[in-house]
Design goal:
With 310 residues, the chain is an alpha/beta fold. It folds into two domains: 220 residues, Alpha-Beta Complex (Spore Coat Polysaccharide Biosynthesis Protein SpsA, Chain A), CATH 3.90.550; 74 residues. The chain has ten helices and seven strands. It has a seven-stranded mixed sheet with strand order 3-2-1-4-6-5-7, with helices on both faces.
Length: 310
């Protein structure tokens, strides 16, 4: 059956590359609608995208996550191809990603960037940070992906219309991945070529700032998705601190029958109370988390699945 395909491109100051990106996806997916969502560009991005034949829309709230939220809300299609407007991703790979999505009845296919470090295309700092964050997410959520931060993805309509899109910046890729893992959605990863930006085109990513934001997002989502484990770890750490503080107090009491370090004893008791409170929070929030997970799952199941093979 015919499927409506939309190519959605978040963009901020990509005048040097956006026209080529639009033309590339027009050639690879001639039947697809191509939407460029401009995020307060000041360099002629809108004009270049319009001239290349894309439908241009605007999101005034700054940040890629805000753009993704608006794109997912506004656009209606059966298959969504999301890609950055910087010209680094291979448009010719889009049919292969879509074919994988449809053939295996998946909800998300990630275009994993091939390692091009020998050519200096994928900056070492970003590559190492990506690996560390992907490893960290895998330990928490059991990720099956190697390139968690790729900006090249294909989605089913069901995924897009049930995705809450809470983040505001570049951590949106992390949120997309963890949403799929948390709901145990069918996903896959396909290797794709990754090219260098042209001269004069600068990356909007900041290795340290965005890395910290992504790590913070993982921590928040860990707390939301696995509250019992999160607060149990916190409770265990607090309990260890309390026992460490209490040891000399208890030792002196056993030896002398006195408590000469009364403030330390009070502190140790207070920290142990915090540990107990943390554990109770984990138990309560785990029950609430299960309820929220059920709600998310029901929202996913209610979403129109007309894009899926039957």
């Amino acid at each position: 059956m015919d499927r409506r395909t939309a190519v959605i491109i978040p963009c901020h100051n990509e005048a040097l590359t956006i026209a080529e990106v639009v033309r590339g996806f027009r050639a690879a997916l001639p039947e697809a609608e191509i939407f460029v969502y401009d995020n307060n560009s000041t360099d002629g991005t809108v004009e270049a995208a319009t001239k290349a034949g894309a439908t241009v829309r605007h999101e005034r709230h700054q940040g890629k996550g805000n753009v993704v939220r608006r794109m997912f809300a506004d656009i209606d299609a059966d298959i969504f191809v999301m890609v950055d407007g910087d010209g680094t991703y291979d448009a010719a790979a889009a049919p292969m990603l879509i074919e994988r999505l449809c053939a295996e009845n998946l909800d998300m296919v990630v275009g994993a960037r091939r390692d091009s470090s020998e050519d200096g295309l994928y900056r070492p700092g970003h590559r190492i940070g990506n690996r560390l964050l992907t490893w960290f997410a895998a330990k928490i959520f059991g990720s099956r992906l190697r390139d968690m931060l790729s900006g090249y993805r294909v989605f089913s309509r069901r995924f897009v219309k049930s995705f809450p899109a809470l983040s505001s910046g570049f951590e949106t890729e992390t949120e997309l991945t963890i949403h799929a893992l948390h709901l145990r959605l069918p996903i896959a990863e396909v290797d794709t070529d990754y090219a260098a930006r042209p001269d004069g085109s600068d990356s909007k990513l900041n290795t340290w700032r965005d890395g910290v934001r992504i790590l913070w997002t993982i921590g928040l989502l860990f707390k939301e998705a696995r509250p019992f484990l999160f607060f149990s770890i916190l409770a265990a750490l607090l309990a260890l601190v309390s026992l460490g503080l209490a040891y000399p107090v208890v030792r002196d009491f056993i030896n002398t029958g006195l408590v000469p370090r009364f403030p330390t004893a009070i502190l140790a008791t207070g920290v142990m109370i915090l540990a107990y409170s943390s554990f109770i929070c984990g138990v309560v929030l785990d029950s609430l988390g299960r309820s929220r997970l059920e709600t998310k799952r029901l929202a996913y199941l209610r979403a129109d699945a007309s894009d899926r093979n039957r």
